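User: Can you predict the 3D structure of Arylsulfatase? Sequence below.
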Amino acid sequence: MYRILKIGTSAILLLLLLTNCKEVTQVASEKKVQGSNVILIMADDQGWGDLSFHGNTNLNTPNIDAIAKKGVSFTNFFVQPVCSPTRAELLTGKYFTRLGVHDTSAGGERMDIGVPTIADILKNHGYKTAAFGKWHNGMQPPYHPNARGFDEFYGFASGHWGNYFSPLLEHNGELVHGNGFLADDLTDHAISFIQTHKDAPLFVYLPLNTPHSPMQVPDLFWNRFKDKELVMKYQNPEEEDPQFTRAALAMVENIDSNVGRISEHLKTLGLEENTIVIYLSDNGPNGWRWNGGLRGKKGTTDEGGVKTPFFIRWKDHIKAGITVNRIGGSVDITPTLLGLLDISEDKLETDGVNLAPWVFEPKSAFKDRIIYNHWAGRTSLRTQRYRLDDENRLYDMVNDPKQKEDISEKHSKIRDSLVQEKFTWLAQYPPITKETDNRPFTLGHPDFTFTQLPARDGIPSGQIQRSNRFPNNTFFTNWTQTKDSIYWDVETLKKGKYQVTLYYTLPEGNAGAEISLKQDNNILTTTIPRNIRPTS
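Assistant: Sure. Here are the predicted C-alpha cells for Arylsulfatase:
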C-alpha cells in the first residue's frame, strides 16, 4: 500500500488521471446464445409522485406511463434512501450493507469486488452489456463498470456532476467531452448500442442523472414549467420551493421524452416483442413536492424516501395493465430478471426474491417478508402491511399510507417482533463506516489502461479546502502554503511506468508554481508555466 502526495503552492487540483502505459486488450466472451433483451432505465432522485401515472397533474409523462399501462406496475416497491446503496442492490441482489457501501463519496460508494453483478451473469450467457449514465459504485478498476461485467461504459462514475451540457465524461475510462444535454446524450448512446447489437441479446443499463441537481434542463422543457401553476403541492406547502419543483418536473418530462425515443427505436427495429423494459428511480424525491402525501423524501427511511415507481413491459409476454400489490425491492431486481429470462445461477446468493411469478399471475399466493431500509444510522422495516420506522413507531400502511398514526401501543406484539427483526438484521449485516473502511484506492489494474484519482477521493492537509462540503464533483482550493499537500491512499496493482495527466487551474500571477507527485520513494516534479484551458 502506498500514499500518493501532491505538494505545491498555487495549483488547484481538479482531477488526476493515471495511465498504465502497457496496452491491454480485453477479450470478450465468445459464448453466444439466444435470449431476450433487457433495458433497465433508472431515474436519479425522481419521487414516486413525479409521474402522471400516479396522479400528478403538474406534469405529463405518457411514455413512462405506457410502460406501466402496457405491462405491469408494482404499487409497493422500495429502494434505499440514497443513490449508491440502491444501485449496489439492483446490480447484485444483495443488501448494500453486505457490499461495503456506506457513503455516497470518497470511496464509501464502492461495491465490493468478487460479488457477481447482473451484467457479469448476462455477459457469461452471451449478452452484450453496456451502462450509460451515473455509475456511483466505484471509479477505479476493479470497481469500475468495465470491470463489473459491462462491455461499454459512457457517463460518469461519481455520484454528482456539476454541468449537464456537454460536460467532461468518460468512455471506457478515457476522458471525453459529452454532446449536448447529458440525459439526451446518454440516451443517444443507448440507442446507438441497441442498433449496433440488435441481432445479439443485449443488456442496457441506463442510470440517468436527472432530476438530480444541478437543476439544469433544456429551454424546450423549462419553458413548459417556468410560469406554470403547481396545482398539486407538498402537504406542507410552506416547505416547498416552487422553482425547484418546476425544474425537477421539467427534467422528468425530458426523461419521458427520452424513454419515448427508446420505445420508438425498439419498435422500428422490431425488438419490442423480444425486449424487457424496466423503469424505476433510485430513491425518493430530492425536494419537498407532491408525492402522494407520503412522509419523507430522499435520505429518509420513511415511505416517501424509499418508495419508487417500478414498471416492467415485455410485449406479448406480460399482459397489459397488471398491478402487483405485493411488496418488492431493489434486492429483487437481479433474481427477477434471471427469472424472467429463465436463467439459472445455482451458486448465486441473493437477499432478494424472484418476482417473476407475480408479474405473470399477480394474485399468486406469497409469504409475508421484510424489506429493510437503512441509511445514516437509521433503519426502517416494511412488511406487506406494516412499517416500523427508525424510531420504532409502527404504522398500518394499508389504512394509513401517510404514516399519520403510531399504532405501536395497540399492536405491541407486532412492534416488538419487528424491533427484534431489526436488531437481528443489523447484527447479521453490520454496516461499515468511514472509520472501519480500510480499503485503499486501486491504481494500475493490469487489465485497464486508465485509472482516475479525482479530487473527491483525495485528503487535503493544512489550509487546503474543498469547493463544497459534499465531496462529489468538487475541486481543491486555497492551496497557498508549500507545506500543505493532498494525498490518496492507494494500492498499486501492477508495477510499471505510468503517464500522469493533471487537470488544474492556476490563479493569475501564479505562473511558475512547482508541483510534485510522490509515491513511496519515487518523486516527479514539474513547473506549471501558465494556466492552460483543455480543448479536448
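The longest helix spans residues 242-268. The first strand starts at residue 2 and ends at 7.
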